[in-house]
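Here is a complete protein record:
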Amino acid sequence: MEKKLVIPERAAGVLLHISSLPGKYGIGTMGKEARAFADFLHAAGVRYWQVLPLVQTGYGDSPYQSVFGASGNPYLIDIEELFRLGLIHRAEMKALAGKKGVDYGMLYRKKYALLRTAFSRFDRNDPAFCAFVEEGSFHEYALFMALKTAHGGASFDRWKRSYRFREGGALDSFLLRERDEYLFWQFVQFEFFRQWKALKAYINGLGIRVIGDLPLYVAYDSADVWAQPQLFKLTGSRKPRKVAGVPPDYFSATGQLWGNPVYDWAQHKETGYEWWIERMHRAFQMYDVVRIDHFRGLDRYYEIDAGEETAVNGKWHRGPGMALFRAAKEKLGSLPLIAEDLGAMDAGVEKLLRASGFPGMKVLQFAFDGDPNNAYLPQNICKNSVAYTGTHDNDTMVGYLRSLSREELERVSGIVREQLRRRQLAGCGGGVYGVARAIRLLCWQSDAQLAVVPMQDLLQLGSEARMNTPAVSEGNWRFRLEALPSARLQEVLREELMAFGRAGK
């Protein structure tokens, strides 16, 4: 494959999910705060905004467990824009006002109710909406969600057999009866993507590129699995036969049992990887650059028998490897992908990464074990990489440092001081905050073409601001900024990026 760099310039990025933006209505949205944050990034010289998956979440509220992998999250719709369109009234917006953090239970009850109110006033004969429905990209999703609503939110394996097995006559009759519900779910996707396209155009107009996320797996209870069951390892009754996860690792002593159904890669190969190519195509339409989550699973994947309580007893199997990317490149041309190459690496996935030419991720929080050959040490990070202080799955840098014993913190501090000396950087003071800032500067100074810092690490927040804890099912994806970043932080960030040759114009 062509080895053109995915990130063509030396640049900086900031990681912040849209849901984490401040605002008055229960969750960050694609409204004025998103534009103001983009203005902050532009003024600071940041050229990449990494937003993580923007898909509609299902049970557990994780965007890595979506009801449809190509969907947009209705929670992120800006209700101020719905007010401007005359679809909701100011008094009705008060139901979401004054909420801090992200309360997903409240959003499920109240935001969907508000969106249904907006739909009741929406002109269903709007030409743009009619064209959106007719185009058919969200037909399976809207039908799935309408069926799910009719079954009280139950998983599709508990539906009436004719619906579970997609019998044509039963689905046609259902669609005639429940046309309004079907069109409601079309409406929320229409409005999400209308707002997202406008926001992305604004961001791109500032010279900022958006990095999105393509989860390797999809949720079992999803339109993806319901509509294409032959592409997954399921039983005859459409239950999962094998599920995904990873063996014991840094994050969990018993591994991570994700529960997503694993792919039947033989079936995908027979179709020329058509489903995956369409999935990539839609991701490239939505984002400028796409991070493939759990990239190593495309070389070898770990599967566990459905019903196991932990991921300890799983087995490794061969994935599609370069055959998938060659097929995608033939249909789509360039593939602006970043590989999440964290976790248990072996020669196979390293070979796949080299063959693909995609930049891998280097997370500095994993760098300080004392091994001079540690791949995440700044001195060992190559140009075709994306360096991070941490990701959404890590504790914040301050939280991580605070979690260390006194002896561990002294060891890490010593390694950081040595890295500063080696790279001819001035010290940043002692204590947790000094070490955390030093690691951020090492990230900026690394040879990686792109360096990304989570907003929590720019603000030097503690563990209370952590976004996600792998293998823990509750309390995640709730972090929000209390206010937009200050002018002082913007000034400091721009000075840092200019010093290390990463600032945009």
About this structure: The first strand starts at residue 11 and ends at 15.
